[in-house]
């Protein structure tokens, strides 16, 4: 019999990097970042790489689906402030998606 481990998807080698002194990203900052991506794909905000507004409804839908999934997975685990922000962001983005789909 060997000491082989099965089922691992990766192997870590070397030393772990030391923790930084920077604060971890806040949840609100994280979801605002995801929402910004949706706004870019909806064509409401310029793409930072090109400087142009470009609409891609398929990618916008994927961003909304990602946010919706994250919303469901975090339900009941957020602060009141986080809940309110998340609900407001999703509602706004969904309305913008419907409007963009009509154009």
Describe this structure in words.
With 103 residues, the protein is an all-alpha fold. The protein contains three helices and no strands. About 9% of the residues have low confidence.
Q: Strand-and-helix sequence, N→C?
A: HHH
Mean pLDDT: 85
Shape: globular
**Roughly how many Å is the radius of gyration?**
19 Å
What is the number of helices?
Answer: 3
- Strand fraction equals under 5%
Structural class: mainly alpha
Separation of termini?
Answer: 65 Å
Topology diagram in text:
Blueprint (H helix, E strand, L loop, with lengths): L26 H16 L14 H18 L5 H23 L1
Keywords for this structure?
single chain, 103 residues, mainly alpha
In short:
Helix content is 55%, strand content 0%.
């Amino acid at each position: 019999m060997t000491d082989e481990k099965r089922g691992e998807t990766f192997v870590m080698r070397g030393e772990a990097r030391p923790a930084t002194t920077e604060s971890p990203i806040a949840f609100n900052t994280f979801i605002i970042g995801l929402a910004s991506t949706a706004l870019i794909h909806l064509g409401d905000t310029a793409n930072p790489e090109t400087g142009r507004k470009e609409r891609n409804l398929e990618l916008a839908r994927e961003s909304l689906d990602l946010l919706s999934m994250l919303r469901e997975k975090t339900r009941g685990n957020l602060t009141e402030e986080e809940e309110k922000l998340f609900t407001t962001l999703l509602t706004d983005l969904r309305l913008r998606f419907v409007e963009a789909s009509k154009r």
